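Quick check before the chapter quiz. The format below is the same one you will see on the exam, so make sure you can read both the input and the output lines.
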Amino acid sequence: MVSLVVNMMLGIVIGGGLLKKNKEASVKVVTRVIDGDTVVFSDGGHGRLVGIDAPEYRKACLSKRSKDRLEELVLGKEVEVVNTGKRSFERDLIWVSVDGVSVNKVMVGEGLAIKFEDYTPEIEMAEDEAKTTKRGIWSSECLPEKEGCVIKGNYRKGVDKKYHLPECYNYKSINLNPIEPDEWFCTEKQAEKAGFVKANDCPGMK
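Here is the expected output.
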């Protein structure tokens, strides 16, 4: 009976899009928060909030604030959990709700995480709002722009580190990621010193 009530509540509050394949919700107690998107339950299970990606703890911008906020939302509380059935590093990928409020959506909406794989329209809308209002990682605290510094340094994890000049073909479509070591540079020399190389779509490159 409890599972049925929880499932109905989740469906009303966060929309059918989050309850993929009509997964049944369960109630668990969070005993530890590892970072802004990963928790441990009283039964020993680990869960990663699906659809979002928080700053890497102790390394990325606002990572401690992200972790602290998730602790405030869920630590020591009974939470409603919907397991997507997928696993990442032996962790369940989950949707979490507290008192009918989607924690995944709150973290993104407050600018303390970004949308990630398997995100939903609700998560995307929350991120758009956070960007528009410049909350959290989208504020000047992370990736501050300096006057005259228009070179975009874009890091793609496990792929490469490229810098893009305004005259490069894809410059406008490059969005710097505040939870990665992306940054603005004033000169090409600065970018190269930081380990970035000029993007192939720039004039003079093949």
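If your answer matched, good. Helices lie at 2-14, 63-74, 103-109, 121-132, 188-193.
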